[in-house]
Amino acid sequence: MMGTVVTYERHGSVGVIRINNPPVNALSHAVRHGIMEALATASTDDSLAVVLSCDGRTFIAGADITEFGKPPQAPSLPDLLLTLDNHPKLTIAAIHGTALGGGFEVALTCNYRIALATGKVGLPEVKLGLLPGAGGTQRTPRLAGLPAAVDLITSGNPISAQRAMTLQLVDKVVEDSLEDSAIAYGVELVEQSAPQRQASALALSLSAEDKDLIESMKAKLLKKTRGEHAPQRILDCLIAAAESPFESGLKREREEFMKCLADPQSAALRHMFFAERAAAKIENMPKDTKPVAITSVGIIGAGTMGGGIAMCFAQAGIAVTLVDMTDEAVKLGLEKIAKNYAISEKKGRLTRAQIDLTMANITTSSNFDNLANVDMVIEAVFENLEVKKEVFAKLDGICKPGAVLASNTSYQSIDEIAAATTRPESVLGMHFFSPANVMKLLEVVKGAASSDAVIATAMAVGKKIGKVSVLSGMCYGFIGNRMLKHYGREAALCLIEGSTPAQIDSAMESWGMAMGPLAVSDLAGLDIGYKAREQLTAEQKGDPASYMVADRLVEAGRLGQKSGAGYYQYDPETRERQEDSAVMSIVTAARQELGITPRELKDAEIVNRLTLALANEGAKLLQEGIAQRASDIDVVYCYGYGFPRFKGGPMHTIESMGLDIAVAQINEFHGQLNPEHWQVAPLLAELVDNGGQLADYHRE
Ligand code: T1G
Question: Which of 188, 223, 278, 379 is the most exposed, having the fewest neighbouring CB atoms within 10 Å of its CB?
Fold first, then answer.
């Protein structure tokens, strides 16, 4: 009757509809169909109440995201909820794990909700560029009030069962035996002749405060979620909820939901949802590969990166030994960590108790011998190959067999570093991004000798410390920085060809980048690139037009934010960037020296050149096997380089643009600009020829 994903059974006077659709009981077509059938059975049998509960680790965690973009199959979720809302029997949702999205909308349509104390509820649709499309924007404010609904639905963050109860979104919280408690609750409610409450029947009005709140949220979200459409559509649905009867509010919600579903932003955010999960999977890794359990870690280098990395591990409850050359250096490092935590405490992100607990996980030393028994060491000393090789040779003599030895290098060869030890199979790269305690990306770099177990360990520990780990093969700059070189080159060339720092950065920021390329260079420090170029030959440095201005700025003492000026002047108080005519004088001088006559560049050309330069290089490293899959590159750029998630990353961007259009544009640039810079990646040409997709590409 109902297939295997939904069953219906009686427990005395109570009917129990149980869903079992692993891994997260998503509302697939089969589940919707099964529930509809079970409701029909319950509506005609002599049960007095009906409980909806789920097997496995969670209550329904939402609509089945894999079904979006495919032809809809009846019953739709709104059809199902209409039946549930008008069901003749008293209905109770039994919530455990995470009742999210459509799953929480099912619960909100039941007359009562009971939850395990460990349970959470939420409406995360906005994170997928969507909005609650089955009554969530209409029922939530009727139960919890408009302010709470605004927060819950525009943030998309789940709340605890207790918090939900204070908001009238959950009626009862139990510590354990959820299903039995739900059945007993049903009997109790029937005995009390409790009404079949419907959230849809509750009144909701828009007070003056609510109006002000919504207006201020509109402005705040416009700023915070620059360029994203769903948050504004959510607010429109919530206004409709307060200004119109339930049915017309529901109709408005459906219209806005369909706009979101058709919006490329949602396709990009759904791509990112699955890309993040795919990135954790290592292809061709033997199934029996066991990651080493990491309970203690040594961090070498108590500078900005070392300190940030130490915070990640300490916060995850892993014992950290922070080591530097002198006691003074580690003391300074620890003080910096304490200062960072004081800021988090001030901003209410962490409590003093949490900070003390975390700090207790960090011990410091200037003696490498204290690393003899740690499970993993991460080296974060300054970016010099010889120094790193010395450190690893020393660790080789100290660390226990089986310890994982990782380098936080951004560029250097993992193979050369590993060769400085007698155990290259234990060496790999773990490339964190600054500030390491904030940025979610971790590039795990496998060397030629790195063992499967060591790689699996780094990927697993990355998840444990709250990072999104992406595996990279070994090449100069790995995935992110190798591609960034081409992005940075085009930004520098657009400047010298006729644009200004402000135009380039605002073109990229209006397009969606968190920060424009030249402002990012100022943040990172122009001297870093300058020193790296000093190590290169003229040939390796490439076209002087792509670095002359940056060199001249450094030689003029303009190192970026750290010196108060770079491509911009920075307000010493607010750190706000201001345009500076002195920069354009340097640019003009460089143009004259290189014989370049400036021309007008459109924002569209700037955006196209920078995003295509990224994706073209991405396709090259994908075909070389440096990245396992195209979506990994998207994860790297969205979590490490401020690429807008609602664009889905550089590879998704050209895929949705159309590879044939992207290749045609690259060929056009090849004709108009420096041909060396615009050689179409062979993979892109192949995919255009054979009608293939980047998303399906797997290196043989
Ligand atoms: N649909 C399809 N697959 C899903 C899924 C979903 N909703 N949620 C998770 N998966 C898959 C996921 O891809 C992974 O697969 C496996 O389950 C485990 O997930 C009408 C429109 C529930 C908190 O946004 O936030 O309802 O990689 O690795 O870390 O209004 O999954 O193993 O092959 O993330 O324990 C709204 C999305 C949908 C929730 C569990 N719901 N899911 O986290 O496991 S839109 C969501 C999550 C909607 C209605 C609208 C998390 C989780 P694989 P996982 P986890």
Answer: 223
298 in Cβ contact with 671 (< 8 Å) = no
How high is the pLDDT of residue 3? Answer: 61
With vertex at residue 157, the alpha carbon angle to CA 653 and CA 634, rounded to the nearest 5 degrees, is: 20
Q: Are 639 and 468 in contact (CB under 8 A)?
A: yes
- 422-456 burial string, b = 16+ CB within 10 Å, else e? ebbbbbbbbbbbeebbebebbbbbbbebbbbbbbb
Residue 100: enclosing H or E segment and its boundaries? strand 98-100
DSSP 461-489: HHHHTT-EEEEE-SSTTTTHHHHHHHHHH
DSSP class of 326:
S
Count of positions (residues) in the chain: 700
| Token reading at 3 | 């297939």
* pLDDT tens, residue by residue, 392-404: 999 999 999 999 9
**Measured distance CA(554)–CA(535) in Å, rounded:** 16
Question: Is the distance from CB of 17 to CB of 84 less than 8 angstroms?
Answer: no
Question: Considering only CA atoms, which of 544, 472, 483, 411 is closest in space to residue 681?
Answer: 483
| Residue type (1 letter), 334 | L
Q: E strand or H helix at 296, and its extent?
A: strand 296-300
Q: Which two tokens stand for residue 240?
A: 């409709």
Q: Which residues pair with 386 in a beta bridge?
A: none
Report the predicted TM-score, pTM, of the whole model to 2 decimal places: 0.96
Query: Omega of the bond prior to 23 within 30 degrees of 0, cis?
Result: yes
Ligand 1 atom showing the smallest separation from residue 133 Cα:
30
**Ligand 1 in reach of 65 Cβ (< 6 A):** yes
d(CA 584, CA 571): 19
In angstroms, rounded to a whole number, what is the distance separating the alpha carbons of residues 492 and 494?
Answer: 6
Mutate to test the pocket of ligand 1, among 19, 24, 257 (most ligand atoms within 8 A of CB): 24
3-state secondary structure of 607: helix
Element (H, E) at 300: strand 296-300
Q: Which letter, b or e, does each residue of 199-211 get, where b requires 16 or more Cβ atoms within 10 Å of its Cβ?
A: bbeeebebeeebe
| Burial tier of 558 (Cβ tally within 10 Å: 0-12, 13-18, 19+) | buried
Q: By C-alpha distance, which of 306, 324, 326, 440 is closest to 380?
A: 306
Which of 5, 64, 65 is the pocket-test mutation for ligand 1 (most atoms within 8 Å of CB)? 65
The bridge status of strand 376-379 relative to strand 362-365 is unpaired
Q: Tokens representing 177?
A: 């035996």
Q: How far is residue 152's CA from residue 150's CA, in Å, rounded to a whole number?
A: 6
Q: Do 259 and 230 contact (CB within 8 A), yes or no? A: no
The rounded distance, in Å, linking the Cα atoms of 252 and 245 is: 11
Parallel, antiparallel, or unpaired for β 14-19 and 6-11? antiparallel
Q: Do residues 444 and 455 touch, judged by C-beta distance below 8 A?
A: yes
Separation between Cα atoms, residue 100 and residue 120, nearest integer Å:
8
Cis peptide preceding 75, ω within 30 of 0: yes
Count of alpha carbons within 13 angstroms of residue 412, beta-carbon side: 23
- Say how many Å lie between the CA of residue 294 and the centre of ligand 1: 27
Helix axis angle for 136-144 and 146-155, nearest 10°, is 140
Regions of the chain with pLDDT less than 70: 1-3
Report whether residue 34 contacts ligand 1, using a CB cutoff of 6 Å: no
